[in-house]
Design a protein that fits this description.
With about 290 residues, the protein is α+β, with helices and mostly antiparallel strands. It is built from 14 helices and seven strands. The structure holds a DNA duplex (13 and 12 nucleotides).
DNA sequence: TGCCAGGCCTTCC
DNA sequence: GGAAGGCATGGC
């Protein structure tokens, strides 16, 4: 048994549980409810992490740059105290939601993994999305031993090079199989790249994402928000449609047009729209249904 | 059994 | 450019 060194990171305005359970990621698993402890994979390493008050305790099979990797992934370089104070002043719906959701951090996830995961998310539910993403990782990703158990990295595009459409179907992705196949080929052919994710403007990148099979406006916005650090985008799914209709248009049948919701969010939420979306979404799902 | 799930694609006006 | 229908699959 290899001895792994635990590192401790000081945090402010951070809630690990909310951050991992608010629906922006699909592969983290709570292994100890009482200790508030989770295991997951960040790119090329397995991470075990728990939070006690303002301290994060982290162990990984790969120790180089661990603190930096964790801080970057959980967006710990940003001052969320400042952000939350700022958005709480916008209106009462937001300040009310924050009472239940303060500490949600916006994750910086791997671009390729996020694209594939959110293609799977279309017309799907979170447990099934997780199951499919885990199955793809298990079949095609690299195996990593950590504390006596097997974990699997999300496969690289090269590792998916020869995977057939039917094999994706066998991972439980349903009709999205061909979309995934085509998108993997597009990545391999350089139609879209990691450099695009880093360098393009939000509008340019959205336009490019929309050329991928299985990527529509909502999926594109989730990719922009959850892996490209574009915090001004406002993904509108059925839940956001519901919560926005109810809180800002005083309708409970969700018949407000997406265009009108988006216009409202852009105008009133500005560059923090993506952060606000997460709080409204999570609060709606956890406390209003 | 039928409906829904963090929608998108294709077809048809 | 907008509306309607289909789509795999599992849970309720």
């Amino acid at each position: 048994m290899i001895y792994l060194k635990e590192i401790v990171i000081n945090v402010k305005c951070f809630n690990l549980k909310y951050t991992l359970e608010c629906g922006q990621c699909f592969r983290w698993k709570c292994i100890d409810e009482k200790e508030n402890e989770f295991v997951g994979v960040i790119k090329d390493r397995v991470i075990k992490i728990r939070q006690k008050e303002n301290l994060l305790y982290v162990i990984s099979n790969k120790e180089d740059n661990l603190e930096e990797v964790v801080k970057n992934y959980f967006d710990l370089y940003e001052d969320y105290e400042k952000i939350e104070k700022r958005i709480a002043l916008i209106d009462e719906n937001i300040s009310n939601a924050l009472k239940n959701t303060s500490g949600i951090r916006h994750l910086n996830q791997d671009f390729f993994e996020t694209v594939i995961s959110y293609i799977i998310s279309a017309n799907n539910n979170i447990p099934r999305i997780s199951k499919s993403v885990n199955e793809i990782s298990k079949r095609y990703g690299k195996e990593v031993m950590f504390e006596g158990e097997k974990y699997y990295l999300f496969p690289t595009m090269e590792e998916l090079k020869d995977v057939k459409i039917k094999e994706y179907r066998d991972c439980g992705v349903g009709f999205r199989d061909a979309y995934i196949y085509q998108t993997v080929q597009d990545f391999l052919n350089g139609k879209i790249t990691y450099e695009d994710a880093k360098n393009l403007s939000t509008e340019e990148l959205r336009k490019k994402l929309l050329t991928l099979k299985g990527v529509g406006p909502k999926v594109a916005d989730c990719i922009l928000l959850f892996s490209c650090n574009k915090k001004e985008v406002f993904p509108i799914d059925v839940w956001v449609e519901r919560v926005m209709s109810l809180l800002y248009f005083k309708l409970n049948d969700g018949k407000v047009k997406k265009k009108d919701i988006l216009e409202y969010a852009n105008k009133n939420f500005g560059l923090d729209a993506g952060i606000i979306q997460q709080h409204l979404f999570y609060n709606m799902r956890e406390n209003m249904m």
